[in-house]
Amino acid sequence: MSSMFSLSGFKRLLCLWCRAQQERVSRMLPFATRNRKLIYTEGGSYSNEGPAEMISKIGKSTFKLRRIPIQAKCFVFVLLIICVYLYGSIYLAWGQNRLTSEDFLEVHKCPACYGQNFCFNLFDNQFDLSGISKYKVFDRINVKNVHYAKHKYQGHQIVLKKLGHDDEIKIIDDRLCKDSFRESGCDLGKRMAVSKTAKDIHASGFLPEHLKDSSFMFFCVTHKLVDRVMDRYPVVGSKGDHMPLDDKLQILYTAQVNPEPLMLSTFPASEGWPFPEYYGACGRYIVEEYSGKPLADFYDAPFEKRADLAYQMIKMADRLTSDPEWNLYWTDLSAENFAVDPAGKLTYIDAENIVVADKQATKIANKEHWDELSEAVFVECEEGITDCLSFDVSLMCKHYMTDHNYYAVCRNMLSRYADDRVNGGIPHLLHDMPPHASDDWDLDNLLNECTRPHQSQGRIKAAHKLLHALDNLRNLPKPDAKAKHGNRIPHI
């Protein structure tokens, strides 16, 4: 009797405990879940609604979804795919450094590449891409294949260039495939070393004929230039005559695609040439110094600042033609070819289209008139065109000096002939010059004489006078300083 009572008492206690736990869990649930029949309406009251009514509403919503036009459904679907793609690209950009990827740098295509001396710095995860370069999705609009990166620890910026559009590089690749007895799209990493040109270089050495007419840099090519290129080419192994075949093929490939890295290493900034510092290459990307903002950003700067930039530009022209051994001539000159660093230093950043002439070789090419100055001829542009810089490369190869660089600067950058505002472009660099620049320093007339000289050697004379005038204009005291010291009596 007592055992039965105790068993029934235990069951009762168990039921009470289960009910208490159920109520406890119920209190943890939202109100609408605990009271499914009481739904809060917009009017501020409650209404009874059972499962049937809820199912009915779900059915109506499904019916409305089916009535949406197919075009709208497709649009939403495509939008969803784009969002997923963008999210994935951003996620991968933050999670993966593309500069450590051999596929991104295309190292596997060497020796059909620009070099490999900088690969360790990239594979060692020392640099991070910056700006839109971090995101692969933007590569489609980055048709010039120029990327920016920062050193993770030192913070300095670098520029990575692929040296051409993908279509331009493919044309070179297909031509080299043909030289390797293969169809377009062949594996140049394996085929270039057994190409017809590679066998010829292996048998007879690296000769000017192998580089002749591959680019402007080698239009006047000589043995001396080839030796200088090989001696200064940044490689880990031997240089000069003992350079491995693969390194010679890398020089050949670079010359055909874009000789800019060869220009930067052969005529380095450390020797006073007005180019960015060259760090090296990895696969099909070169790495060079970040030289600052584009020159176009300074066209609205105060006149004194623009006078300083114009002064530096003419000094560049003078440097390129005053070297005792070499003449370097611009063939492409526009605002996008220059950059200005925070200190105000001007740098020429696009060294692709530069003619290199060996001064000693001009004596052989033009024995009678090699030492005569070759003067560029002014050409009037057609209506609606401002960039019509003309030149004769053969004269650059045959004369000890030409005044072409001075002509290029005055014609394409500084004078009124470079003003493209009528066509919606930018003005010339020295636009809206103040009265004292024209009246006191005769700047406008000097620019005209530099562009269209009226006497023999008039362009060089005008360029030297321009340097003197611009040097004074860029160092004029500011108006506030004049006002502050205007009443000061000078000491005698």
Strand order of the largest sheet: 3-4-5-7-6
Integer average pLDDT: 84
Helix content: 40-55%
The biggest beta sheet reads: 5 strands, antiparallel
Q: Which range does the strand content fall in?
A: 5-15%
Round the Cα radius of gyration to an integer and report it: 36 Å
**Class derived from helix and strand content:** alpha+beta
Q: What coarse outline follows from CA principal-axis ratios?
A: globular
- Helical element count? 21
Tally of DSSP β-strands: 12
Provide the low-confidence segments as ranges.
1-5, 36-40, 44-48, 480-492
Distance between the termini: 134 Å
Notes on the structure:
The protein has 492 residues and is an alpha+beta fold. 46% of the residues lie in helices and 10% in strands. It has 21 helices and 12 strands. The strands form 4 sheets. It has a 5-stranded antiparallel beta sheet with strand order 3-4-5-7-6. A hairpin with a 5-residue loop joins strand 1 and strand 2 (46-48). It is globular, with a radius of gyration of 36 Å. The protein starts with a helix and ends in a 7-residue tail after the last helix.
List keywords for this structure.
492 residues, alpha+beta, 5-stranded antiparallel β-sheet, 3-stranded antiparallel β-sheet, 21 helices, 12 strands, globular, disordered N terminus
SSE diagram, text form:
Elements: H1 2-28, H2 31-34, E1 38-40, E2 46-48, H3 51-66, H4 70-95, H5 102-105, H6 119-123, E3 127-129, E4 146-151, E5 157-161, H7 166-179, H8 188-191, H9 196-204, H10 208-211, H11 223-232, H12 245-257, H13 260-266, E6 278-282, E7 285-289, E8 293-294, H14 303-321, E9 326-330, E10 338-340, E11 346-348, E12 354-358, H15 359-365, H16 393-398, H17 404-414, H18 435-439, H19 443-451, H20 458-474, H21 479-485
Antiparallel strand pairs: 1-2, 3-4, 4-5, 5-7, 6-7, 8-10, 9-12, 10-11
